[in-house]
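Appendix B. Raw example, untouched.
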Amino acid sequence: MPQLIRDVQLTLWGSEVTLPAGTAVHLVKGADGIKGDLYAVTSVPLLVKLTGNAHDPKYRYAFVDHADVGE
């Protein structure tokens, strides 16, 4: 299963968060009309915990760079 190979700092829905290395991600085919396929964080509970936002993680993807993902 793909996962983050390093800690990744992002701004998600107005919150500065650090996604820990080892966080599971999944490929979203055709996620973006320009960038194409993108990786997104799999765990909604983790995103809720990190952001304190119980709404957005359920309905929006949290994308990460391909360079931060390994098998």
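End of appendix B.
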